[in-house]
Amino acid sequence: MSPFVLETEKISSARVAGRVVRGALIGILLVPALCGLVAFVGGVSPFAYQGF
Amino acid sequence: MRAAARQFWYGLIELSSTAFVSMLVAMVLTFGLLVWFFSPATLAGPVGIYAPRSPKDAETFVTLDVMRMAHEEQKTPRLLLLGASTLAQSIGDPTPIEDMLENQLGVGKWDIHMLSSPLQTRLDQLTLIETALKNRKAGDPPVVIAISIGVHRLGFPTERLLELENLGRLGVRSDWADDEVRKLGAKPRDRSMFYIVENFRFVVNDFPASFLRLVSRNASSRQIASYSPGTELPDIYRPRDLTKAQIDFGQYNLETYVEFFARLNERIAGMQNVHLIFIDERLSPGFLASRGMQPLADWLNGRFAARVAQFGAPYIEFMKSAGLSSSDYYDDYHLKNGEPQRRARAAFASEFATFVKTCLSGAT
């Protein structure tokens, strides 16, 4: 069984499920990750101030 | 079964348009969740408990607190305590004060909110007060706004004040604070009809942790007194020269503060049953003695009390009444947990009960 499939080849529902799950996981994690990246690049930090 | 598992694995790792579309859909849905979660109605509701990043995320806790006040009907007399870490550490959880006041006043429970946050500025205080009073109606029970002030708070140059304001630490905005920013000769941060745009820094700061807390249903509960992590901070780590310089500078800044609070008093003057009081923040007597600052500190406290009395706001010196000594302090700013806090709470309850009996009789 090859890991590669042709466009015309019928693929199993398990394989489709794998694709959907991978995409969903990345999509869900990307938004908080982007927030973190924006905060890092923009110097936005809860610890940006010090003192009493 | 093994074949299906292998197919699932190939689906996970291969390049595919299905995965890409699935990713886009998930991103849109997660962004939708962000927009829904970071809206005043959601934050003020039961789901809002997942917003604070950690038990020490005071800015988010106080944001939620004032948003709830703006959304809920007030049923009991309410006391708002505003200040920075010195106040938070002096009183900690204010719930015991509610019980003490009930015993001393015998007129039902006061609802006390600790709205302290680290390095809280007077602009932060204005923002919190305006939001907390937003939906106030005539005939509502009294609200007392207690702002803690100490000699070390006065030494805040305008640049530092604006720098902290522009960090957008709180998740609420205020016309009153924007007005004060303009009076300082600066431009307030942009406003927007969209919450996440208007409070961009707050949202970006909080969302990663809030999201994890929301999906794992793991809310954090606030730790108010979090500034005294040990028994006593060694002298060598105490920034005493810096604190002395702050107080030295602050003596020339006192009038700025008084004028600011006079304007706040004017803003709330039109609201029925809203009262402004000030409470003291005392530094360690050992520090003041070591730098010869006691006479200046006494003069500044006396001067401040006299000036705010001119517009009818009392200055309640509960930390002075508590009779605190240097050994009650963790460092020069913060009381130790335990017994010193209990004494400070008892002194506060006693002084505040006297204020209620003399100034609010009939209002409660």
Report a brief summary of the structure:
The complex is a heterodimer of chains A (52) and B (364). By secondary structure, chain A is mainly alpha-helical.
What is the strand and helix layout of this fold?
The complex is a heterodimer of chains A (52) and B (364).
Chain A: H1 13-41
Chain B: H1 2-13, H2 17-37, H3 40-44, H4 58-71, E1 78-82, H5 85-91, H6 95-105, E2 111-114, H7 122-132, E3 143-149, H8 158-166, H9 175-183, H10 195-198, H11 200-216, H12 240-250, H13 254-269, E4 274-280, H14 285-290, H15 294-309, E5 315-316, H16 318-321, H17 339-359
Helix pairs in contact in B: 4-7, 6-17, 7-9, 13-15
What can you see in these coordinates?
- The complex is a heterodimer of chains A (52) and B (364).
- Chain A is built from 1 helix and no strands.
- Chain A has 52 residues and is mainly alpha-helical.
- Chain A is rod-shaped and about 60 Å long.
- The termini of chain A are far apart.
- In chain A, 23% of the residues are buried.
- Chain B contains 17 helices and 5 strands.
- In chain B, helix 7 runs antiparallel to helix 9 (175-183).
- Chain B has a 5-stranded parallel sheet with strand order 2-1-3-4-5, sandwiched between helices.
- The model of chain B has no long low-confidence stretch (mean pLDDT 94).
- Chain B has 364 residues and is α/β, with parallel strands linked by helices.
